[in-house]
From TrEMBL:
InterPro entries: Regulatory_HutP, Regulatory_HutP_bacillales, Regulatory_HutP_sf. HAMAP family: HutP. The keyword Transcription applies. Keywords: Activator, Histidine metabolism, RNA-binding, Transcription, Transcription regulation. This is Hut operon positive regulatory protein. GO terms for biological process: L-histidine metabolic process; positive regulation of gene expression. GO terms for molecular function: mRNA binding. Belongs to the HutP family. Antiterminator that binds to cis-acting regulatory sequences on the mRNA in the presence of histidine, thereby suppressing transcription termination and activating the hut operon for histidine utilization. Coiled coil: none annotated. The keyword Transcription regulation applies.
């Protein structure tokens, strides 16, 4: 069965990230999807990955002891970071810094529930030289099956 076009997981993650109102989380709760938001700023790519991973574990979006869940999250994070960094996942080694907000959404975006759950990570913020005012906006999205 195809995707449920009313509830695309990547779109929901981006809307959650960029939307300021509380209505969207209510829609996600009705779907039974798990989600959270957070912030991270660093010149170290490992800190970006760690911040998103820690939030997902602390909010119960992924189970710490299940490798497949952490692995799926990791790939979604790396894909999102790749979007922010334009394909070169290096930050500090290239004298770049990021200031990002993130959202994580877990759910089943398919009409057939047997398709299982997916996870989406959305990143939005700034990237640039480590000098205030010398950055620009960037956005990234990563989606992976669990």
């Amino acid at each position: 069965m195809p995707l449920d076009r009313k509830h695309l997981i990547g779109k929901e993650a981006m809307l959650l990230l960029l939307h300021n109102e509380n209505q969207l989380p209510e829609e996600l709760r009705k779907l039974g999807w798990k989600f959270c938001k957070g912030k991270v700023g660093s010149m170290d790519g490992q800190k970006v990955v760690a911040a998103v991973e820690t939030a997902a574990k602390n909010q119960g979006i992924v189970k710490t002891g299940l490798y497949r869940e952490t692995h799926a999250l990791y790939h979604a994070i790396i894909e999102a970071v790749s979007g922010v960094t334009r394909g070169s996942n290096q930050i500090g080694t290239l004298l770049r810094t990021v200031g990002l907000q993130f959202s994580i959404v877990r759910g089943n975006p398919y009409q057939n529930k047997e398709e299982g759950e997916w996870i989406a990570v959305a990143l939005y913020g700034t990237i640039g030289a480590p000098v205030k005012g010398l950055e620009h906006e960037a956005i990234g999205l990563g989606i992976n099956h669990i």
